[in-house]
Write a structure and sequence with these properties.
CATH class: Alpha Beta
Number of domains: 1
Strand content: 5-15%
CATH topology: Vanillyl-alcohol Oxidase, Chain A, domain 3
Structural class: alpha+beta
Low-confidence stretches: none
Radius of gyration: 16 Å
Shape: globular
Largest sheet: 2 strands, antiparallel
Distance between the termini: 39 Å
Number of strands: 2
């Protein structure tokens, strides 16, 4: 794999355990409560010209690890900006259609869309 383009870049693994797993997967928007770990890959450098290289590195790192993810889900706040609707659907899993119904009811014009959007 690729070496990180910046010594400030990193990968965190967060355990998903304890009280998080005591909540039913359909009780909130985020349903990946049976996963054991959450991973964050952060490409960091004070030089903004390195952003494309850091994004490429983070994407390659994610792709190499994600193929071993049996759940296929994601924590929406840890996703990159350009991952697309399929990844948003995967992040919410079985809860996605319920969230679409909520969006249709409370935001049918899709005013709140500058995010990992759920379309009404």
């Amino acid at each position: 794999g690729s070496k990180t383009p910046s010594e400030l870049s990193l990968m965190h693994l967060y355990p998903i355990d304890g009280a998080v797993q005591e909540v039913a997967p359909d009780a909130t928007a985020w349903g990946a409560r049976r996963a054991r770990w959450s991973m964050v890959i952060a490409g960091i450098d004070p030089d903004p010209t390195k952003a494309p290289e850091l994004r490429r590195w983070a994407s390659e790192y994610w792709a190499a690890v994600h193929k071993h993810n049996p759940h296929g889900g994601a924590y929406i706040n840890f996703m990159m900006d350009d991952e697309g609707e399929a990844r948003v659907r995967a992040a919410y899993g079985a809860n996605y259609e319920r969230l679409v119904a909520v969006k249709r009811k409370y935001d049918p014009a899709n005013l709140f869309r500058v995010n990992h959007n759920i379309r009404p």
